[in-house]
Amino acid sequence: MSKKDRQISFNAFEMNCISHLSPGLWRYPNDQALRYKDIEYWQNIAQIAEKGLFDAVFIADVLGVYDIYGGNDFGALKTALQVPVNDPTQLAVIGAAVTKHIGFGVTAGVPFEHPYPFARRLSTLDHLTKGRIGWNIVTGYLPSANKNMGSSELPHNERYDVAEEYMEVIYKLLEGSWEDSAVILDRESGDFADPSKIHHIGHHGKYFDVPGIHLCEPSIQRTPVLFQAGNSTRGRQFAATHAEAIFIAPPTKEYAKIAVKQVRDSLIQAGRDPYSAKIYILATIITDENENLAQAKYNDLLSYSSKEGSLVINSGWLGVDLSRYDLEDPLSNIKSNAIVAQVEALSNSTTESGKEWRLKDLLKLTGLGCQGPKFVGSPTQVCDILQEVIAYSDADGFNLAYATTPGSFEDVVQFIVPELQNRGVYKREYTQGSLRHKLFGKGDRLDSSHIASRYRVGGAKSTINDFASTGRFKHNKEQDYVI
């Protein structure tokens, strides 16, 4: 199959709030973002995504407020820019209750969720969704979150150092604590489980001490599908080690190619197949029956966009107060401890006219769907662009940010999916099984090439030897353990 004929995947990119990446559009006629508090709203989103055979509903999150712009949170509150924001994890179960196939990628920040209870939350979600859960691993970038958690803001690279140990604890709990045969259900003896097959992980590290067992029996996937959005140099190293699905937000097609190659190269450097992780590009699709209607819709949508909201979110992403910038000021020399990849993208790419990025260019780009590209046109035109971007960049699909919700997703399902299917570049049915099996066709569990496998019983990094100190096991050098 040529690059032009590669299969294309979609995620619905959502957030449990009013204004995610299109500030001001909650005012648009028939937009339902204000219903974010309703179970029925989220069930409808899940059903629309499943009707369109999307891979997942990818649910973003931040724990904190965008208060860099103007030095306060007024702009975020006035424009409802990702505040108020409710917890994302419950949405997976709500959506799974009315669907059979669609996956759910929930975002949770490593600095704000201790791995011991969080591992239980992941297993619970995987049980209740029947193996359709993914976890978007983030290290946090809003200073307000650290302040309200009573912790100091860590340097960018150290955030990933914490995340590395966090993942070690998660793998030990999810992969190495309960053996598959631990649950025996012996009705005669009354034994539910064999304690000799449930292991204390004995973790004592720089950032975490977790000596005990995982609180849940193994779920379908054990470890959920691992999403990651780190595209800085350190972020790519982390993603290449752990991630199975990687999200990038390049401002141009040209930079998308650079970003994808950086990710593929990082996977190779980590000793993995460069295609062992799927790469999704942030994008917003505006379409209708024909080009004129699509363009008119785009212009109408853009008229509702909030300039202040765009300044608020970009200040948070870039880590600088854009209220201090004039429209003609360049954005190429920003130093940031926020989303470093976004700073690098602006510094290492140019606008469509080949000029360096200035504030006015950023505002023009981010009025709808923030920093991802906008594809506007008839179904034929948009599908041509989608195929071109996939072939040019070597990405796998798109994280679709909405202009209006659920309208933007409904348009994609009505107009774009059938056209892609007719071209033979979009699936016509779901693969049975877990989210991981749907994405990769290799079973429900992480395979033996993934770092997590080393923490299973008998794995290279298993802590089974540590169990001897508990008195429950006697170690035998000829075997992993002897009861």
TrEMBL record:
NCBIfam families (alphabetical): FMN_nitrolo (TIGR03860)
Binding residues annotated for FMN, in chain numbering: D61, T107, H156, Y160, S232
Keywords noted in UniProt: Flavoprotein, FMN, Monooxygenase, Oxidoreductase
Similarity section: Belongs to the NtaA/SnaA/DszA monooxygenase family.
Occurrences of domain Luciferase-like (ranges): 37-388
Protein name as annotated: Luciferase-like domain-containing protein
GO molecular function (one): monooxygenase activity
A Pfam family reported for this protein in Swiss-Prot or TrEMBL: Bac_luciferase
Signal peptide coordinates: none
Domain of life according to the entry: Bacteria
